[in-house]
């Protein structure tokens, strides 16, 4: 009778405006889907042009080239006998929409515009697109001539409709619509839609995957049905890493899971499912059936095609599986590593250079590069021809095969320890040992001559010589001497990145990696234009606490024993003079707060939307066992004072892998002033009034208890 349907969800590593490459990856996904028996192929959001086109969406070229790609897809024999669901921008009546274009056998069936646009955090869809606000309404869309010539159609349906095939009913959601409180799948399901599709452009955030999985499974748990989710993967030219995780769910349970982190440019997830399982599941939910009897019907576009075969009794169907989640440490090891690989191969550079200080942050960055090398070797071992071809281009050797991560690391990764008179032998040894264990090409150099030359110029011009605090200098002198060292390191990093391979007789240049973590950036504990200034930063969105756990993960999984001493050493900038040959300066003492406290401040400031007063109110409860209200007030004031003084540094922050929702990235995620009134006079006065009120209350209670 036709009950077993086979559907395909694709995770594609699309690249903004790479129409040639995007088309090739779409074709590959369709070929794979058809070879595995799929009759419906779903791709990621805006896959034709790439999700991250940003203000290029304003350009008519982006629309033109998207239709040119669509024409190539429509006219190709590869797209015959399978319903193809692709994403692209469409201009309808001079309004730009984020759309799904669904076609079959050279005919466009439906153009479905996005209803709920993503417009928070990293997303700015309302800047470029308009939501379709006409529920259950369909209009005629007049096709451009290049499409008319292929399809023979002059107009096609455009709007909020569902597809009625010979054997089932299919309804589309687009990314954000799954996350909306009034998701379309709710009423579509009540109206008899049995298969829901969702094309996403959803990026990775630590510990986020389970939320997406829960949303997909819950979409069909109450209402029954099959849910097919496709997602973009990889770095498409920005700070985000789209993490795939294509999945297929039925009646509240996952039946197929795609990879979250992979170097495969094309991944196709296929599942065969029994429609009768959906119908029997729904049949016994009386509350659902009562609601269904009153629902407003969706316009149905009839499709003379079936997703099942007439004789499919013996066709095996997929069974529920248990979703396998990565630990946060695994996510840090894999996500930024895949992002770095995309950036390296697409920028056509020859590798990376990292100033390796021997501390946790730069060591964690080095470990991520080493993890990337592991992923490359594993992908080549598993037969990934794309990765092999890219690796050969990067190392400029057409016969090269990366097999050993350490050997590959030696070719593409340069680490550099930049010592000064304030550096300890311990950090030098730690950096050298870690470089040996991961296999990087390691350089030791001393920056004292450059620092003395710069300070000498200042002294020659002004007749004054600044001194460190320990030698009687003021705080201004002390800070300026630290900043000179830090900035010299940035200049040298770029010099060595450009010319190190030249000295080794190798072509190309290196990308400079930064290694400031999210907490330091939030506090502003970095020198503007020091080694935090780089081309990209794989750990800029990761907290110090998570980085420490990641270091422990690397000790256990990569056997990098050099990390043990790095883990046990207190974090230090090593910019002030040593005392008896030992480091006297530590990060937390300099900052006036711990990294653990910084993470809490960051989450309250960004995620909980707390200003100084609200943060104080929350923390007097959270920290009631360890701090008095007056101590909490002092800590909150110090944080906001330092945060606001240093906020200007975020305007030049190195592009970082986005991994935390409390990132202070000023580019598009955390939009705030960079010139504050750093006294916060009104806000701090409110805190003081509350502290005084609490002190009076506590005093009254204590007195009452004493009187007994």
From TrEMBL:
Instruction: Name the source's superkingdom.
Output: Eukaryota
> Could you tell me which pathway this protein works in?
Cofactor biosynthesis; NAD(+) biosynthesis; NAD(+) from deamido-NAD(+) (L-Gln route): step 1/1
State which Enzyme Commission number(s) the record gives. Answer: 6.3.5.1
| Matches recorded under InterPro entries | C-N_Hydrolase, C-N_Hydrolase_sf, Gln-dep_NAD_synthase, NAD/GMP_synthase, NAD_synthase, Rossmann-like_a/b/a_fold
Which terms in the Gene Ontology molecular function aspect does this entry carry? ATP binding; glutaminase activity; NAD+ synthase (glutamine-hydrolyzing) activity
CC per GO annotation: cytosol
Give GO terms for biological process. Answer: 'de novo' NAD+ biosynthetic process from L-tryptophan
Q: Which Gene3D superfamilies match?
A: Carbon-nitrogen hydrolase, HUPs
The kind of enzyme this is, by top-level EC class, is ligase
The residue ranges of the CN hydrolase domain are: 5-275
Task: List UniProt keywords, sorted A-Z.
Answer: ATP-binding, Ligase, NAD, Nucleotide-binding
Quaternary structure?
Homohexamer.
| Similarity comment: family membership | In the C-terminal section; belongs to the NAD synthetase family.
Its protein name is Glutamine-dependent NAD(+) synthetase
Q: Kindly list the organism's lineage.
A: Eukaryota, Metazoa, Chordata, Craniata, Vertebrata
